[in-house]
Amino acid sequence: METTSRQTLVSPPGSNIHASRHQHELFSYAALDSHQSQIRLLTLHPSASQLEHSVSDESHFARPICCSVLTVSLDEPPPYKALSYCWGDDDRSRHSVNIEGAALRITESLDSALRHLRHPTEPVIVWIDQLCINQDDNSEKNVQVAMMARIYSKAEQVLVWLGPADQGSDEAMDFYAQVGCAITSAGLDNYCTRDLMPLLDAAVHTKDPHDQLWQHTSSVQTLARRLLLPRLQAVADWDRRDWFGRVWVVQEFCVGADPLFVCGRQQIPADYVKTTRLFLGLGLTHEFLRAVRDVGGDAGIALVRAISNDDPLPAFFGARSRKQRYDRGEIHGSTLFELLRKIFVGRHARASLPVDRVFSLVGLAADADDLGVCIDYNRTAVHVLTDVAEQLIRRGTLAVLSYVQFPRDVSDLPSWVPDWRPNLRPSFYPYPLAGLEHEHYFTPSGNLPSVFLPGLNEAVLGLGGYAVDVVEDLGSIWTDDNSGAVDPLRHQSHLAQIRFLCRLSALKNNPIYKSRKRRDEAEWRIPIADIWEANEPGASALQRATSRAMTAFAEFRNDLAWLESGGLTGSVVAPATGDSPSEASMYRLSMAKMSGMRPFITNFGYVGVGPPAMCPGDVVVVFFGARVCSVLRPRRTSASLAKQYLHVGEAYCDGVMDGELLSQRLEEQFYLI
What we know:
Blueprint: H1 17-21, E1 38-44, H2 57-62, E2 66-73, E3 81-84, E4 95-99, E5 102-106, H3 108-117, E6 124-127, H4 129-132, H5 138-146, H6 148-154, E7 157-163, H7 169-185, H8 197-206, H9 212-228, H10 232-239, H11 248-255, E8 260-263, E9 266-269, H12 270-283, H13 286-309, H14 313-327, H15 336-344, H16 356-362, H17 368-371, H18 381-394, E10 452-453, E11 461-474, H19 488-508, H20 516-525, E12 531-533, E13 542-544, H21 547-565, H22 583-592, E14 598-602, E15 607-610, E16 619-623, E17 629-635, E18 644-653, E19 668-672
Parallel strand pairs: 2-4, 3-6, 3-7, 7-8, 18-19
Antiparallel strand pairs: 1-2, 1-6, 4-5, 8-9, 10-11, 11-14, 11-16, 11-19, 12-13, 14-15, 15-18, 16-17, 17-18
């Protein structure tokens, strides 16, 4: 047992005597020995006393929470479970637990979790960050948080607490339990892997009635659709549980063994949810969608779209699978930069402290040691985020600059440092995963490596590169709601602005392109940044734009003209034939990735698309080693100092993305503040 700073009698497990006699005494932590990798484990005592063989549900939930603390070495711990949960409101004034006769304040969320997780008659040994780490001791927090990946990986099971039963959660849990059990009983869970999933896809595609795999799959799909139809709202609400938006749970879920989803009084293996969602993806047929519309109308279709498009689970299961494959030596591990992108780009991932946006992912990052990232809660968010950005850029990851987006929620950051806040806009450029860095679409600086210059101070970033030109004029910010709908007036207006800038460039008649043909192509390359959603069997989803994109552009413009000529207003869905997306719709999808950016033209006549905050007078530059252009804003400095700039954002500039200007520009030094 962990000792405290005062003597006190300890009640027998389950007794409530101490809860009333020593309410005024606060629990105090004894120091841990970090050299022995010590951690605390919590023994959650049963709700029934030693004299009781059972306890009613009402008493089980109403009785005070009593527990004791055990200090152990993580090198050889006893069997324990680890809790993954959402802290919720940090108000700890209303609830407390009784630890060896003394009170320790806890959040309402944890109080609810403990009342659901404790056993009526048996003790439960569990690790919980809020109780097992002294939250008032930053030195201890630094050590213990750095050990959290090991703590969760050593646990015999990770309990994922989603919260009390509410908004049809029992129906959703029952849905996953029934379908997941059916998938496992039929042996179909063995096909839900990277290697065997193609066999399942083939069976669904061919629908051979004599194929046993298709027979089992069809049976499970029928069950899943039948159970899902009346539970659409419940499943959609389940996806919106706060746990899925908490940053720390990614690491806890990825490294932990045998995760179990717990919601209210129901529990299901996480793998049941994974396999059920995979089969749902295979079973969303036209017949099912018609049934949804018949039962729920447009609202039902909207729920299906939400379940399909806003599904938080792939990020968790994908990261978990990648971590497991990395541990087996099959693939390169995820870098910190990749993890930051996966968690914060396009996802509402929350952390109570901005520093936790980094600290929560260190245990998963394969390059954390190389980057020198250490967990230290005494450092400010500005220092932590700046150090991470600098270390990544030093190692050639200039893609970091693509995620500097304004306004930021951490004040005083240098202009070149991302804040990694939730729901960052995706970069228009598809940066490759670790191990695939040789796969690039653009080479504006050729094959030259990045040039990192000594900064004037820690807040200044120095990079080598060349200037393309100064921005002369701008179009409006392009927005796409990514709903699959087409607003003919908005799309036409955006394309017309780019067409106007391209014709203005032609009037300048400067030698930007090698041929008249290539100049004419700018009109359809720029709206999609020359990257095309190919939709070709056996091909990568994204490619450099080809003549097919030109054809798709023409078809898309015809569709827009058709919609306008019909006198339609507002957003409508573009016509499509067959089951495969039309070429026109693929062009629209390719345009969607540019949402939030605006067209520009430079003094010389270069046309492109850049960040929303860019202004006339900004400079388009290419940093050596970068795959896209950057827009910088010159700052006035004294004559004795090097030129300094604010980083405004990433950009696509037509006519320079393949290194056309390398032999025409002198190397310059850019200092970003």
